[in-house]
Amino acid sequence: MSTATPLLRCFIVEDSPLILRNLTDTLEQVLPLQVVGTADDEASAMAWIRNHPSACDLMIIDVFLKSGIGLNVLAAARENASHARKVVLTNYATDVIRERSLTLGADRVFDKSSELEDLIAYCGELVQDSTTGAA
To answer: Each residue's pLDDT tens digit in the chain (135 positions)?
Structure first.
């Protein structure tokens, strides 16, 4: 469990309360990371990004949301929070979704069912980069 001051500020767009809670708990426990905002639909995610363009270093975005689509959120994040790293975390990590996500500005795409450890490792790399000035 990390007790260091959070180095990464994270915004998560996820419509499943259970996944959101588990993801938040895991990331905040194993990394010096703080979840600074969440949204469960496209409209509230877009509003958060517009109102807090510099408030996070990392965005984790699901594709299918309560209402709307995470790919639209990703495109808005590319325009309004270009400095933040953008990750798509989805149950539908098909080749088409991966390619579309990367085209819209995602730095990485992870499958919820099989790549959560890879997501955590990637976040760890971002923390490491931020401590060495490479981010």
So the answer is: 444 566 899 999 999 999 999 999 999 999 999 999 999 999 999 999 999 989 999 999 999 999 999 999 999 999 998 899 999 999 999 999 999 999 999 999 999 999 999 999 999 999 988 877 654
- Residue 64 placed within a domain: yes
Q: Sign of torsion, CA 15 19 21 26?
A: negative
Residue 39 has which token pair? 């949204």
Beta bridge partners of 5: none
Rounded Cα gap, residues 111 and 55, in angstroms: 26
What pTM was estimated for this model as a whole? 0.92
At residue 11's C-alpha, the angle toward residues 86 and 55, to 5°, is 95
Structural domain of 118: 8-128
